[in-house]
Design brief:
The structure is a homodimer of 153-residue chains. The two termini of chain A are 25 Å apart. In chain A, 54% of the residues lie in helices and 3% in strands. In chain A, strands 1-2 form a two-stranded antiparallel ribbon. Chain A has helices at residues 4-11, 15-23, 42-56, 61-70, 79-111, 122-128; strands at residues 31-32, 38-39. The first copy, chain A, has 2 domains: 4-74, Multidrug-efflux Transporter Regulator, Chain: A, Domain 2, CATH 1.10.1660; 76-152. With 153 residues, the first copy, chain A, is mainly alpha-helical. At the A-B interface, helix 3, helix 5 and helix 6 of A face helix 3, helix 5 and helix 6 of B. Chain A binds a DNA duplex (30 and 30 nucleotides) through residues 3-5, 14-17, 19-20, 24, 33-38, 55, 60-62, 144-145, 148-151.
Chain lengths: 153, 153
DNA sequence: CTAATCTCTCCAGTCGCTAGAGCTTCAAGG
DNA sequence: CCTTGAAGCTCTAGCGACTGGAGAGATTAG
């Protein structure tokens, strides 16, 4: 049986985050000691590692919950897991293409200012000016933040 | 003078979001009609377009506020604008590299399941299994969400 | 004048955490 | 056995960048 701190150390998921996952139903409520502290099985450890990994891959918690609910399922139900993986990969692909466009534009903007500061700033102008970028770098990105900033680890 | 709805139509920024920007100090409080409705100048329209564009490029509102405060400045102060653009470009670059790794892994996961659903699902196993990926696709991405999901536009 | 559309303010919710307050429990050393 | 300090508990609030709804008032077209 593992304490919550032990779980945290082994998976790299912060302690409050573990409690948060329990609250959201991603982890089953842990068993408790007589003093009300959580104690986890190794199965729970595996589950937390699974969640962690899926989060690293950018899956939203809702999708992760779906994957968990599919555990132990067989047959056609499992197509849903496949669909989630594919959808996430496609989201990521679209996002990479989009970010590539943004990068090129930021290049242009950063390059617009190369040291001579006389008149109004070219960088500021470039930020305001949407013309030079072919026009469609808009980020109509659905879904959540792929690869969330979760603090430094 | 433009109504808030007109501003929204012309920039693609939603009405509540415009009010939100005002609240956050990115837009100066608009003039009001006798009936308390906001009326905007064309300068305000330009400013909103600027914000919109910078947001599309993934700049956090704090950075945008800094850029705005630099408007009209000259000389060395403007280096700050340059630094913001470069920093953002670098964040984006790092992020693209990282997302590329994630994409390859999702490819592996999605590929793990190719139709035959007999035993336990390979996709689920692949999500749980961190081994095959060289190990360091972790997303220790600092900074905010580059290219925010702002709903469908 | 009336009906339809806009706009107003305020509040609550989203997502995935993170941090703090103020308290209790646990394990190890003396 | 007692103390000490780390680790745990619950609860609440906050982040960023919005989004949506309620219920009221303003404006505009016919």
């Amino acid at each position: 049986m593992l304490s919550i701190g032990e779980m945290s150390r082994r998976t790299g998921v912060k302690v409050p985050t573990i409690r948060f996952y329990e609250d959201k139903g991603l982890l089953e409520p842990a068993a408790r000691t007589t003093g009300n502290q959580r104690r986890y099985s190794h199965a729970a450890l595996d589950r937390l590692a699974f969640i962690r990994h899926a989060r690293d891959l950018g899956l939203p918690l809702g999708d992760i919950a779906t994957l968990i609910s599919l555990e132990g399922a067989t047959g056609a139900t499992l197509d849903r897991a496949h669909v989630i993986a594919q959808r996430q990969r496609d989201r990521l692909r679209a996002r990479i293409v989009n970010l590539g466009k943004l990068e090129r534009e930021l290049d242009r903007i950063a390059g617009a200012c190369d040291g001579h500061h006389d008149g109004p700033c070219a960088v500021l102008h470039a930020f305001g000016d949407h013309g030079p970028c072919a026009g469609d770098h808009r980020n109509n990105d659905q879904g959540n933040d792929q690869g969330a900033p979760r603090g430094t680890r």
